[in-house]
Amino acid sequence: MNAREAEALTGLLPPLLRAYEVLFLLARRFHPPHFASLMAQAGTPDTDLKTALVDSEPGLAHLGDLREALSTASGAALQALAALREVADGEGDIRSIFRAFRFVPLGLEALYPVAAVLPPVNRFFLDPAQRGDVALQQSLVSPMADDNVGLMRFASDDEPSEGERGGFWLYVPENYAPDREWPLVVALHGGSGTGRQFLWSWLRDARSRGAILAAPSSIGPTWALTGEDVDTPNLEAIVEIVRANWSVDPKRILLTGMSDGGTFAYVSGLQEASPFTHLAPVSAAFHPLLAQMIDATRLQGLPIHVVHGALDWMFPADMAREAERALKRAGADVTYRELEDLSHTYPREMNAAILGWLQR
Fold first, then answer.
1. What are the extents of the domains in the chain?
2. Which helix (H) or strand (E) holds 152?
3. How far, in Å, CA of 234 to CA of 218, rounded?
4. Radius of gyration of the chain (CA)
C-alpha cells in the first residue's frame, strides 16, 4: 500500500466507523416519543462520511476488493441515516424506522472481512473495553485454522441457494482452538427479522469473549408461537451441527432472543428435552401459565437471565416482572435486570453481562 492509499484510508475509516457507532446508539436508544430529539442529538455523521468518501476516492481507486467493501459499508450507513432523517422530518412511521435499521447489518457484513487487514476495523469489531488488548487483536487475524472459523452461512434444505428462512448464520472466533470447550450462543431474532440481521447484535461480544455464535432464521415470518412448533426441531438440529463440528462446552449452551425471539426462547427452551442449559430472553412476552405447564424437573435450578426495559411499549415491564416471580416460584434460578432507559430495542451492552453469567 502506497502513501496515497494509506492517507485515503486514514481519512475514510474514522467517519465510517463513527457513523456505525452513531447508528448503534440510535438503535439502542430508540423510543418512539423521543425519536425526533434523539436524531437531533446524533449530529451529522452522514455529512462527515460523504465528505470523506469524496476525498478518499482517488486514493482508493486501485484497492479492488478493499475499496468495494468500504464503499458498500459506507453506502449502507448513509442509506440508514438518510432514511432515519426522513422520518424525523415527518415522512414515514415507526415501520420506516425499523426498515432503515436493516441497512446496518448489510453494511457490517461487507465491512467485517476488512478486519483481517485493517487494525482500526479489527478493533471496531471488539467490545470497546477490550480494544486495548493487542494479543487478542493479533489472535483474531492469525487463526490457527482458517477453513472452519469466521462467518459462515448454512441454508435450509428448502432454500439451498437463496432466502434465509430455516437456515442459520454461524460465527466461530478466528482464534478458535479445538483443545478447549467453547460456549455456544444461539440468538433468535425478533418478529419478521432474520438471523443474518440479528447476528450483528452479538458478534462483537462473541468475538471478544470467545463464544461460538449461531443466529438462526425462523421457518415462518416469525417464531412458532402459535400452531405447530416447526422451529424447535430446527434449533435442536442446529445445535447438533455445531457440536458435531466444533468443540462446544456441554454445560454452556445458551438460548437467547429479542422480542418474539425472546418469547420463543421461553417456549422452546423450557421444554423437557431442550438441549439448552441456559436461557436469556430479552424484551420478551411471557404468560404465567407457561411456567405451570412446563415439566417441574426441567425448571428446577434452570439458569434464566431476563432483561427488559422499563420503557418497553410493546411488552410492558410488568410482564417481565411477573415472569421473574412465576419462574422463581417454579424453581428456576432467575437473574432479572430491568433497564430504566430501555424501550423495545436490543441492549447490546448486556451481552457481556449475559456471557459472564453464562461462564459462571
1. 3-110, 144-359
2. strand 150-154
3. 9
4. 21
Query: Judging by DSSP bridges, how do beta strands 150-154 and 168-172 pair with one another?
Result: antiparallel
CATH number of 144-359: 3.40.50.1820
Rounded-to-integer distance, Cα 237 and Cα 353, Å: 27
The Cα-based distances of 292 to 63, 257, 289 in angstroms read 60, 22, 5
Dig out the grid coordinates for 353 from the structure: 453481562
Strand partners, 255: 186, 279
DSSP codes of every residue in 253-304? EEEEEETHHHHHHHHHHTSTT---SEEEEES----HHHHHHS-HHHHTT-EE
- The C-alpha atoms of residue 336 and residue 161 are separated, in whole angstroms, by 41
Cβ neighbour number for residue 331 with a 10 Å cutoff: 15
The band of 9, judged by pLDDT with boundaries at 50, 70 and 90, is very high
Q: Extract the C-alpha cell encoding 282.
A: 430479552
Upper half-sphere CA count for residue 120 (Cβ side, 13 Å): 12
Place of cell 404465567: 288
The pLDDT tens digits for 228-251 are 999 999 999 999 999 999 999 999
- Kindly list the distances between the CA atom of residue 138 and the CA atoms of 133, 148, 346, 357, 359, in Å, as whole numbers in the listed order: 9, 18, 29, 27, 24
Cell of 128: 470497546
pTM of the predicted model as reported, rounded to 2 decimal places: 0.94
Cα–Cα distances in Å, from 291 out to 228, 232, 269? 20, 18, 12
Distances (CA, A) of 309 to 254, 303, 342: 21, 20, 4
Match 423450557 to its residue by C-alpha cell: 270
Give the tens place of pLDDT for each residue, 271-329. 999 999 999 999 999 987 777 788 889 999 999 999 999 999 999 999 999 999 999 99
Beta bridge partners of 304: 279, 334
